[in-house]
Known about the structure:
Layout: H1 13-21, E1 24-27, E2 39-40, E3 46-47, H2 52-63, E4 67-71, H3 77-85, E5 90-92, H4 98-108, E6 116-119, H5 126-131, E7 134-137, H6 143-148, E8 151-152, H7 161-173
Parallel strand pairs: 1-4, 1-6, 4-5, 6-7, 7-8
Antiparallel strand pairs: 2-3
Amino acid sequence: MPRGKTGRTHLSKTLLARLKRVRALAMDVDGVLTDAGMYYSETGDELKKFNTRDGMGIKMLQAAGLLTAIITKEKTAIVERRGQKLAIPDVEQGVDDKLLALTQLAQKHGLSLEKVAYIGDDVNDLEALRRVGFSAAPADAMPIVRKAVHYVCSKGGGEGAVRELTDLIIKAQGHRPLYAPDR
Length: 183
């Protein structure tokens, strides 16, 4: 499976065709949108660090007309707030069966799983990753996950992996980047 690299990324015609069909991107949170760390303050507050470049990539996909979604096993107000800030219409928390959640999401929006991309990092993402049209994992995902996906990002979770994937989708589909200089 291709791995992301700094600079040009060479994808097979098959993977480019898969990227061109994508109409929705669903993302795990811990280990994908974050660095997988769970931070706690002395008062017990839980904190998560999100990458703003990932957020910009999500906004660029939305501007290109693609659906974005979060599907996570955790359930926190932090994730809800991040989803609201990025105007992500589908934020599913407390999910044990991510494949079922993805299937329901696709049905809700009239899509087949072939038109869904999913990025995950751990074993609870495997079934979903194996069934979608395009699957990706951050560079620091579990080895079994990296072996199962179509694409392994050069960036780790919370370090721009989602942005790398959104840029791939935008480029493959020929969308003009949101903030590209005039041609």
